[in-house]
Amino acid sequence: MRTAEIKRRFLAHFEANGHTVVPSAPLPAISDPNLLFINAGMVQFVPYFLGQRAAPYRTAVSVQKCIRTPDIDEVGKTSRHGTFFQMNGNFSFGDYFKADAIRLAWDLSTTPVERGGFGLDPERIWATVYLDDDEAHDLWRTTGMPVERIVRRGKADNYWSMGIPGPAGPCSELYYDRGPSYGAEGGPEVDEDRYLEFWNLVFMQYEIADVASKTDFRIVGELPNKNIDTGMGLERIASILQGVDNLYEIDEVRPILARAADLTGKQYGVHSGPAAAQSHPDDVRLRVIADHVRTSLMLIGDGVTPSNEGRGYVLRRIMRRAIRAMRLLGWQDKALPELLPVARDCMSPSYPELAADFDRISSAAYAEEDTFLGTLRAGTTILDTAIAETKKAGRSSLPGDKAFQLHDTYGFPIDLTLEIANEQGLTVDADGFRALMTEQRARAKADAKARKTGHADLSAYRAVLDAHGPTDWLAYETLDTESR
Ligand code: ATP
Ligand code: MG
Ligand code: MG
Ligand code: MG
Q1: Hey, which of 46, 128, 267, 361 has its CA 20 to 30 A from 328?
Q2: 246 within some domain
Q3: Closest ligand 1 atom to the C-alpha of 247?
Q4: Where in this chain does the record put each Alanyl-transfer RNA synthetases family profile domain (predicted)?
Q5: Looking at the predicted complex, does its ipTM rise above 0.90?
């Protein structure tokens, strides 16, 4: 079943059950100063859950575009994490609660495909519930699920709150057993790759106070209006229904991966079996490329442009990681003009605006690649030399001033220096780098002040001198002026 069809069925199922279909919010989380990007379906509904605004509907359904940058290190290595993904969700604002949420999720998951559902084999579905949530436990039992497949888990896994006083509650997750070739038997607590989490149901039923952390708080009472918030990973259910090993192989992602493999002459997936953990590094890189190119498309599509701070910096890092992975696989030419149109063709059936807007999106993307290739050309030789010198000197850490010089003179981002150094088995003296960055900021501030007043503010230089002592000017003796 194609991803676009899964999305359609999800919306149709809940619409038929009285839910209002609400479009996805754009990826930048403008309404929340603590969040760069929307990371769950419920984010656009937070004011309703907190009772700050009255919901214009009692129940809603959406397919929300999400970005989770904290998952970036998992991408390509696990079978189930993307930096961009889509979250199918159904929501109740003081309307139905646990019993209906469980029944609606179960029905859609197990109704046969020919009758509009996803047709999952009930024997392969496991559920987790919060330790003392007997109600949820018993509701899953009414579906016929045996007690052995209902696992009780603690606060870290199965409790939801915003980490602030307000609504909170237990959650219950659905897992699909992909079978013995994916890992050890025993349920989600044993192997989260074999048992793939695909749906999380949050039951907002309590009010909490004295919140020290997400797992340390006091329940002060029941909420007058109990809410439901669920999230089903669209790519995860697609990977199950399409019978592929991971979410980089579904219809919306695989063509990008295939194109990258073609260009670089790599054969994807010949090195390993289904368990993603055994993957060959080339395969991991191809998955990273496919994921990151799609994420870049979606971010630029929603108005983000590459820059050195905030949302633009996240985008820049993701784009540059994809471009560099292509180079590591041997592709020396521009990569995005080859890959981005493929991503557009994958995603525009669900998001036609991407095709309509592609001139704008691709110009921004291709310009960023040009800038980055210039940076790479200038910085790589210098970094390679510094790495060789560090190794020759028998040290395991690249000096902070080298990292700083690369950043300051060549615009070589520190995370790239870190990544390349790590690949070469070195760490980077991050403290030294940070100290130089702080000095530079102080200097810039002093210069700005001097420009305003006409007088240099020497106090900043004083602070640098106090912290580090005087420097000897050795350039004439030590610099190789011939090569300049
Ligand atoms: P995991 O434990 O696998 O990291 P999670 O518990 O962090 O997932 P939730 O916060 O419960 O995920 O989000 C709801 C649903 O969204 C998950 O059940 C999953 O289907 C999907 N999901 C979460 N993170 C990702 C991701 N990085 N890529 C794709 N789908 C995701
Ligand atoms: Mg997670
Ligand atoms: Mg989880
Ligand atoms: Mg979860």
Answers
A1: 361
A2: no
A3: 29
A4: 1-484
A5: yes
